[in-house]
Amino acid sequence: MSKSLRQFSFEDVEKHNKEGDLWVVIDSKVYDLSKFADLHPGGPNVLYAEGVAGKDATDTFFGLHRHEVLLRPQYARLQIGVIEGQEEAVKAPVPGALSKVPYAEPTWLSTGYYTPYYTDNHRTFQKAVRQFFEEVVRPEAIRCEENGKKISQEVVDKMSDLNIIAMRLGPGRHLKGRTLMGGIVKPEEFDYFHELILNIELSRFGTRGFVDGMLNGAVIALPPIWNYGSPELQAKIIPEVLSGKKYIALAITEAFAGSDVSGLQTTAVRDGDYWVVTGTKKWITNGTFADYFTTACKTEKGLTVILVPRGEGVSTKPIKTAYSPTAGTAYVIFDKVRVPVANTLGEVGKGLSVILSNFNHERWMVTGCSVGAQRVIVEECLKWANQRIVFGKPLTSQAVIRDKLGKMITRIEACQNWLESITHQMNNMTYNEMSNKLAGQIGLLKQFVSRCGRETAEDATQVFGGRALTVTGMGKLIENYHRTSGFDAILAGAEDVLGDLGVRQAIKKMPKGARL
Ligand code: HEM
């Protein structure tokens, strides 16, 4: 390490400016690139250019690379010293730290601003969650997003040690007796703002497929079991899933029917103490690795939800989507699967209410994830527009770019503020009140957030140009977001259908005597 602390002057560096003897300065650090030049992914020639070889190439470097390049161990060791009297301006990110870039954090986390919703406990919780996600989950997210594999058991185990899977299902009796986030929040104090923090924090890595791969299946498929399953079924399935030992998926959608749930074709026919389930399901998140499927079936008496364990007659095939296979998106085939009648969730023929019972929570969860991802894009654009030099000036000197930034900021602030307002309502309402008063609002919110997300993805792509089209490099988060932001407009209910739901609910509630 003492080697890296050697002090040089610019005159010292300047002498090393040719092939075989090449030094450059980046952000006060001196790098010896003599041997690396031929291995440089951008080619050797660019490094021998005037203004680079033997010079301070800081601005040039940051116009072409993310800072993280310098932090990778194989490149960090190219540093041989520092320029005397200078200090680095770009610091390595500290896991858990808040960004100082304006609008990179929600108002409640920005220095000098106030909040009516969040307490000190939420702050402590947020800090611990971000630190854990950045230290433990981010490396896994990046690995899985690339190789398409499912989240490793090791990371799942670490998440369940902190009871993250349980907390992602929201406040409720399933948290009773659990130590949440190492004891930071008591189960009875855990509220929807804690859950919102989790949803926002887990979607900050620019790895959209992994967000769903992070056991989103449990968030949507387990509630029907604790709300409608028999005590025996609950006692077996809930601990297995919340401890991350077994995986579960919600199997409603088919190629035949999506938002029109009544058109489903998977059937369940009674045979003594068993259902015989036959049919197919499509786009089933976590389906490729799920052990259980909370499945909507047509029966003689109408729609019925049945928990189908993976076993004889159940097969799953991965579906290629625009996001990573790490989400486990599956085509599921049920071929005369025999399932005990005891696995019925709710009453036979009342499946629609079982399905609908969790929709509000799922849609609210998707908006939180979308807001988390969208805000990171705003930060990326602000940083890039500030550091990118065009025509000798920063990109921010262009009015058209400032206009795009203004619109992005407006959208993310509007999304977050409406989301927090609804979250506050959820914290103060009973389940029935929420169903009655918030279904329409959440539908409209989700439509608004996902539309904003796509507009921001488009604007960000224009700001980053060609860099937004490559999976690696400076615009990699923009590329991922642009490719996947449309998912938020479809998952948990298509955006147009949800917007319409919101309006229909409002019309239903119009006072009889309302006249101009
Ligand atoms: C410590 C010094 C450097 C290291 C470790 C390094 C490393 C890399 C890496 C890993 C890439 C692949 C793209 C990425 O991951 O972002 C890259 C691309 C590139 N580098 Fe460097 N680089 C260094 C210095 C420089 C300098 C001083 C220049 C000055 C011109 C330069 C010019 C380029 C160019 C033009 C590309 C291609 C960019 C693109 O495809 O968008 N590099 N470099």
TrEMBL record:
Q: What cofactor does its activity depend on?
A: FAD
Question: SMART domains from the xrefs?
Answer: Cyt-b5
Which Pfam family would be a valid example here?
A: Cyt-b5
Sorted keywords for this record are: FAD, Flavoprotein, Oxidoreductase
Transport as UniProt keyword: no
Q: Is the Flavoprotein keyword given for this protein?
A: yes
Q: Which GO terms describe its biological process?
A: fatty acid beta-oxidation using acyl-CoA dehydrogenase
Tell me which PANTHER family the record gives.
ACYL-COA DEHYDROGENASE FAMILY PROTEIN (AFU_ORTHOLOGUE AFUA_6G10880)-RELATED, MEDIUM-CHAIN SPECIFIC ACYL-COA DEHYDROGENASE, MITOCHONDRIAL-RELATED
Into which family does the record put it?
Belongs to the acyl-CoA dehydrogenase family.
User: Per its record, how is this protein called by name?
Assistant: Cytochrome b5 heme-binding domain-containing protein
Organism, by scientific name, is: Collybiopsis luxurians FD-317 M1
